[in-house]
Amino acid sequence: MKKIALLFCCFLVINFASFGQNGNKTIQKLKSETKAQVTINPSNGIVEFIKFPAQQPFALKGNTLQQKAFTFLDAFADLYAIENSELQFTSQEIKTDNYGFKQLILKQVHEGVPVYDGQLRFHFDKNLKLTAINGTVIPNIKTEATAVLSSSAAGQIAVQLVEKQQINYSKQALEIFDTKRYIFPKGLAQGYVGNTYLVYEVEIRNNADVREFLYIDANTGKLVEQFTGIAHALNRQVYEENYSNLVWQEGDALPGDLDIFQQTEVLASGHMYHLFNNAFNYDSYDGAGRTMRTINNNPNIDCPNASWNGVTANYCTGTASDDVVAHEWGHAYTQFTSNLIYAYQAGAINESYSDIWGETVDLLNNYSDDLEDLSVRTFCNSSDRWRIGEDASAFGAPIRDMWNPNCNNDPGKVSDLQYRCGEGDSGGVHSNSGVPNHAYVLLVDGGSYNGQIIEALGFTKAAHVFWRAQSSYLTATSDFVNLADALEASATDLIGINLKGLSVTDVDAGLSGQSISANDLLQVVKAMLAVEMRLDPEACEYQPLLADSEALCNAATTGRVFFEDWETGTEGWNFEELPENAETWNTRFWTVEGNLPDGKPGQAVFAEAGLIGDCVNDFENGIMRLESPVINLPNIESGNFDLSFDHYLATEANWDGGNLKYKLNGGLWAIVPSEAFTVNPYNGVLNTAAAGNDNPMEGQAAFNGTDGGSLLGSWGTSVIDLSVLNASANDTVQFRWEMGTDGCNGRIGWFVDNIAVYNCSAETLSVSSSTLQNEIQVYPNPSNGLFKLKKMNNISLLKASVYDINGRLIQQVNLSEMTTEASIDMTNASTGMYFMKVQSASAEATFKLIKQ
């Protein structure tokens, strides 16, 4: 996944400059002293994986694993840009795995609040020497950790959002299953680290077809991110259609009255149980013997399909082949080990692990294989080996090919054209899973691919390497680079260990006599190279909807003809709403809002385009209109006039969007054409009515959608050359910002701020050309003592003098170097009335100030 987004290039420059030099020195010191291999996250410069040589683990001082870990952090703090490790990390559990290795997990906290997926995992050998460290650390968090909203309020917001998303097809009651508070780094799932938010993670379930994780801003109540928890694609129970109809449970006879698919659900779930219990000493999907519950013909899933919803594995008739059954239980095992999210590369790894365990069971269990050819593959259809769902009649054909993912139009390596980008399929989870799938097959069967010749390790070695990576190294947002590091570290850890054999029956296979060798480790490395696991997918260079732009000319700040930043009201502006269905329309005028996205200071005007309407009984199609005052373009004959504005947009792509209209010299309103923009024009055209769009702005050019690889937007500036609209000196012009929505669904809406009209060739205005009183704005007034003095045009001022009602001078402020605004601080003055004299070289004006 592309980890460096243009959206955050400025952040990166500051970040690297602040600690990069010290971090680089510390990395070189660590490498020199220990010969460690180090992986750095390019989006924030922080180390994310350290692997020490197999023959030279790192000995640390300390009587406990916690002491050893903090000894390391104190010595190498610059690797993670931390200042006080004991304040920024809390010690969690110590695990001892089935190989006898120990692992200590430190969780990152900020002001006592856990950081989402912020953790470091310290891996120790049997002599308690450090073999590896991996995890995610978010540096330089500035977010306040005090919440405005309660957890219950956030939960209700989350329920309402899920209801509006219309994904509860079963109509089962939604419930707030769990709520946790986090510092949440935006973009972590997509491969970059952006702004951080204080959020509540709210898990909404109905124990049928809804399991969603929503991250609600704990201050504003807005949706920051959302991930699905429904993964599609020994104590056992099988139900028919719902929980009230138990048709089989542990101890009942087989096959009894079960049909072939119900039998497979029983047997294949048992095969999964025995595989993990025998080989890895892991008892059921939670490691603690939890009952494995299945619902056959679950009416609450969209058939033909199969799913794991966090409670049950669910199947439609004809989907429960042994590999598909094992696949869905694979999601359950993932939930209780790495807990990988179901989005982007982390979701592709999640999906891949289910394919891997599903097909491993299928190829080892000798079940329902009578008519199948499972010989080693030589071309796309040469045998059924490594084909997912080949026995699931409802699918009609295998749904994925692990031996050569290209055979099913999926990528076998990261650079393949089939690699999926964008939001679809939760970031391409079902397709991009082909990359780790292919790596597993190359290790099991061997092969020559992409310039690498990989010798076969067989199932036992490959399965142990992948299991150790899953159970010990991977975290919720691990990407392909992290997976490559984890697999190589796991192979290193297992060198020389007699591995347990694989058995899918209740008979333990015992020790296999096989162990990972240095040559086997080399094959793992070569497999990672073959599928390009560490390569950035160039096709997914996610871009913000609004690109970074160069600074505007000086006149845009010091010589403006017109300016609006919404800090002093909305005088002169017109607000309208134009619903197509007034009887169901939710009132949505443009409104002035604080608490702006990405922590932008001040206020902006906002048009909502959220998750509303159902396109059945509630239609929310209409326009929200923001109309400017008439703007007089002054007698400046040189150069062109420009209009600039800052904005943030996140809408339902192609259906909802916004654009600008203009009126010149009192004429007719017309859309500002794309060619008039010199910076950040419209990014697309809204779907037409013929395509089903009931938005009254259908077919118009508009800003629409979200940032690439995200459900959100980011701030940017657009600039319009007014000469393209035939506007010139002494003309009048008006503008409308129009936000149009269709009948249902949505994202967030459109924020607009800092609207300016200016002429870059204009010289500083002489104060004699206008009245000084009208060239200055003072706000807020009345005030608690902090006043702002703002120039409305490019004039030169000398000073401001404040007097009390008796004429005594209270303070003076030098304005000679003032650009646009200056502060007048009277917080220490008594309440009452004051007078402020503002002077230029040729004039002065007096303003009354009220200190409350």
UniProtKB/TrEMBL annotation:
What is the annotated signal peptide range for this record?
1-20
Please give the Gene Ontology molecular function terms for this protein: metal ion binding; metalloendopeptidase activity
Give any single GO term for biological process. proteolysis
The reply on keyword Zinc is: yes
The FTP domain sits at 89-136
Q: Which UniProt keywords apply?
A: Hydrolase, Metal-binding, Metalloprotease, Protease, Signal, Zinc
What positions does the domain Peptidase M4 C-terminal occupy?
Answer: 338-498
- Pinpoint the Secretion system C-terminal sorting domain residues: 778-850
Q: Does the keyword Signal apply?
A: yes
- The residue ranges of the Peptidase M4 domain are 269-335
Q: Name the residues annotated as catalytic in the UniProt entry.
A: E328, H430
Give coiled-coil spans as residue ranges. none
What's the family? Belongs to the peptidase M4 family.
Q: What is the name of the protein in this document?
A: T9SS type A sorting domain-containing protein
